[in-house]
Write a structure and sequence with these properties.
It contains 12 helices and 4 strands, in the order ββααβαααααβααααα. The protein has 284 residues and is mainly alpha-helical. The chain has one domain. Belongs to the TIKI family.
């Protein structure tokens, strides 16, 4: 948890001062109730990336609220246990049950490359500090974990994370988790909107065959990134960096999601594959 926060609101130099800044805060009223509600839009990025740019009006709305409604309550032990369980296959199953042997080998190689690159990077930060390597191992295990036991959709989501430099700033909680912790610390009532069961099956209309198809093409993308030596590098066109920039500047719009990021359609090599990729892409 972050123990100290700079509360000064500033506009980053990346932003165009001529643009109107959306602070992603809306008020909610009920004609028969006197209480005031607020809707605040967050993104799943480390709090240290965006909190300094969050408007003071958002902080004020949070301060005067006695109840916080969250997507899901990750401070509830039963919820956490159910989420962990549902993301994994049955205890006697592994991804071998649904992945072709050749694809499994490619994923295994990608994961090992990620581990090697990350540990090398961590050691380069302070070669004399053995704790850095140990901490890096812990971070890798927390993020990657037992990937070979993941259900298809959760393996795909994990691979999507790998398309960004997911190991950057791993010591900071995500923005929404920080807000949840802040609400807990301030003794506010927390009400989850979704159940763990609803979180477990986020794209239930997508078949396992379509997910495996997406996994294969995501691996193709990651293999290209390794060949181009971009996995640990700074990619100016990173969709995550673009998302953060537009969120901080208050210019986040729907077309940002259409322009940026990896598309599995680009990695489909034939007409049938491109049609299937297009169909799968509409589900995510």
């Amino acid at each position: 948890m972050v123990t100290s926060i700079l509360l000064t609101n500033r506009i980053t130099s990346q932003c165009d001062p001529q643009n109107d800044k959306n602070i992603f805060l809306w008020s909610v009223n009920h004609p028969q109730l006197l209480s005031q509600g607020y809707l605040f839009g967050t993104i799943h990025v480390p709090v240290t990336e965006v909190w300094k740019e969050v408007s003071d009006r958002v902080r004020e709305a949070f301060d005067i609220s006695d109840t916080v409604l969250l997507e899901i309550d990750l401070h509830d032990e039963a919820t956490i246990h159910e989420l962990i369980s549902c993301k994994n296959l049955a205890y006697d199953e592994t991804v071998h049950s649904y992945l072709p042997k050749e694809l499994f080998g490619r994923i295994e190689k990608i994961m090992e490359n990620l581990r090697t690159n990350f540990l090398t990077w961590a050691q380069s930060q302070n070669p004399r500090d053995a704790r850095k390597i140990k901490h890096a191992e812990e971070i890798y295990n927390n993020i990657i974990g037992d990937w070979w036991r993941k259900r298809p959709i959760w393996l795909l989501f994990l691979l999507y994370q790998m398309c960004e430099n997911v190991f950057e700033k791993t010591s900071s909680p995500l923005l929404d988790l920080y807000i949840a912790q802040k609400a807990t610390d301030e003794k506010k009532t927390i009400i989850p909107i979704e159940t763990a069961g609803e979180q477990c099956n986020p794209v239930w209309t997508v078949s396992d065959d379509e997910i495996v198809f997406a996994i294969e093409h995501t691996i193709h993308y990651l293999e290209d990134k390794f060949r181009e030596k971009k996995v640990e590098g700074s990619d100016a066109k990173s969709s995550l960096k673009e998302l953060i920039k537009h969120y901080k500047c208050g210019t986040l719009k729907e077309d940002i999601f259409e322009k940026e990021g990896m598309s599995i359609i680009e990695y489909a090599t034939d007409t049938t594959g491109r049609f299937k990729a297009d169909e799968a892409s509409t589900c995510f």
